[in-house]
Every structure is written in C-alpha cells, then in structure tokens.
DNA sequence: CTCACACTTCGTCATCCATCGAAGTGTGCA
DNA sequence: TGCACACTTCGATGGATGACGAAGTGTGAG
C-alpha cells in the first residue's frame, strides 16, 4: 500500500501533475521544467525527486544536466495504469492545453539560454 | 484538474484507501467503518466527507444512520477508472487481505451492538 | 416535548509539506 | 587548481492535514 500512497501523494500537487503532463511523449531538461513552472529551482528539484521516488518519472544524468521522462513499458503496471488514468482524466483540460502550447515555445528556446539567462529572468 | 487533485488527495491517506477497499462490492454503515478503523467517529466522519466530495463514495441516509458505497456505473469515467486502478494496484496487498478477513467478522456483529456498545469499547 | 442516539462541525495540537533563499555538492573547462 | 554552472540539500516559514474531544445538529421514540 505504501507504493500506492506514494503515487497518490505525488499526484496531490498541481505542479507535479503539470510536470507529468509536460513529459508526455518527450524528455525534458530540468531547466525547461523550471521555466514552465516559474518556481525556484530548489522547489522543482524537490518535486522531481518525489516523482522519481514514486516511480512516475525517470531521470537521465548528463554531466551537470538532468533530463526527465516518463517511465516506459517496463515500469510496474500500477505506474503505467496510473499515468494512463491521469492522461485520460485530464484530456480536454484547459490548463493542460495552455501548458502544452507554452511548452512548444519553451522548447524552441536553446537550452543554453534557459540554463544561463533563464535563472536571471525568473 | 481540480477534480483530479481532489481524488489524488483523497487517496493520499491510508485510512481512506482502506475505506475504499472495505466498500468493494458492499455497502457499509458508518459504525462499521468506525469499528474497522478504530478511529474517533469525528475523524471517520471527516474522512467520509472527503471521499464523498471527491466523488469516490456515495452516501445513503437512513434516519440517523449513514450507509456508504462505491459509486456505480453512472459515475464519471475518471472515478470509475481510478477505483479500478486502486483495486488492481492493491491486489495481493497483505494489509488489505487482513482487513478483508476482519471485515467479515465485523459484518457479523449486529449493528445495534456496534452503534451502541461499539463506542464504549473504542 | 424531552431525551437518547448517530452523526457533523469546531477548536486545538502535532506533524507534514510547498516554497524560498542559502549553503553544499558535483561537473566541466581553462 | 580555481571558477562557473547545474543541481541538491538544508533551514525557515506559513499553510494544510489527521487526530482527538467538545460542542452542535438532526432523527426517532416515548
């Protein structure tokens, strides 16, 4: 039951739900997620840690960089089914759609800009 | 998204998850749920209220009594799918199985006993 | 109407949690 | 090696939450 509770708790925060929706079908760098959420990097780092602990997100380290994606088919069924549930429950959600549009433009920004200037502008 | 968050938050507490598992395939009276959880009636009342607000549980009032059950097929898809996910994710869980056995004996106790004496013994 | 009873709401307490900025850690480059 | 940079952890703050007992509300019976 603890694992299920970890998942439910991970989904209890709007920012973490948004992060999961950002990651559908793509891998993102932490700086992109920070840009999208507009929160302090320490806060986003914490959110990602909780999502990884719940098994809902995977991290790929690349030097100083951290890239995140949703787990693939090898993940436990409860994780796969939960993510499917999430996606279906939020299909048509206006805030998710808005995020989706904004994510497209954020992804066009070179990462050197986000990592370098991104911090200053926030 | 708010509705999804309400569901996730409802599932973030172990007692509330247990309650949902008690209610599979049956309707229970509040006093039976109180007996199973061993918590104060005020606490259980609050839990049930949150589950109802999240749409995960339905209440039938019968005079002074409150009977709870899971929503039927008419519930929103996100609720139905979430309950299915819960059930699958907890299939084989030892604590849930233990609860299931205990629930059988609790259900054999006449409700007048639970409502009357139950309170004193807790 | 009064009273017992089942339940709900309120107030309090301790704990948890999202957030921030500061401090710390690890990587990469000159 | 020193320094810049990306990220993580720490400490503090304010708000949220699960628990309890007390107080309040609604129902049912005499």
Can you offer a commentary on this structure?
- Two copies of one chain form a homodimer.
- The first copy, chain A, has 122 residues and is mainly alpha-helical.
- Chain A has one domain (2-121): Arc Repressor Mutant, subunit A, CATH 1.10.10.
- Chain A contains seven helices and three strands.
- Chain A has helices at 2-10, 14-22, 30-37, 41-53, 77-89, 94-106, 111-121; strands spanning 28-29, 58-62, 65-69.
- In chain A, strands 1-3-2 form a three-stranded antiparallel beta sheet.
- The radius of gyration of chain A is 14 Å and the shape is globular.
- Residues 117-122 of chain A have low confidence and may be disordered.
- Chains A and B meet through helix 1 and helix 5 of A and helix 1 and helix 5 of B.
- Chain B binds a DNA duplex (30 and 30 nucleotides) through residues 9, 12-13, 15, 30-31, 39-43, 45-47, 49, 63-66, 115-116, 119.
How are the secondary structure elements laid out?
The structure is a homodimer of 122-residue chains.
Chain A: H1 2-10, H2 14-22, E1 28-29, H3 30-37, H4 41-53, E2 58-62, E3 65-69, H5 77-89, H6 94-106, H7 111-121
Antiparallel strand pairs in A: 1-3, 2-3
Chain B binds a DNA duplex (30 and 30 nucleotides) through helix 4 and helix 7.
């Amino acid at each position: 039951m603890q694992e299920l509770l970890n998942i439910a708790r991970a989904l209890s925060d709007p920012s973490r739900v948004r992060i999961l929706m950002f990651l559908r079908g793509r891998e993102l760098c932490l700086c992109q997620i920070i840009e999208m959420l507009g929160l302090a990097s320490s806060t986003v780092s914490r959110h990602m840690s909780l999502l990884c602990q719940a098994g809902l997100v995977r991290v790929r380290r690349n030097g100083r960089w951290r890239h995140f994606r949703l787990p693939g088919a090898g993940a436990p069924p409860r994780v796969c089914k939960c993510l499917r549930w999430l996606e279906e429950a939020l299909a048509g959600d206006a805030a998710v759609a808005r995020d989706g549009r904004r994510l497209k433009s954020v992804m066009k920004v070179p990462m050197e800009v986000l990592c370098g200037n991104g911090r200053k502008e926030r």
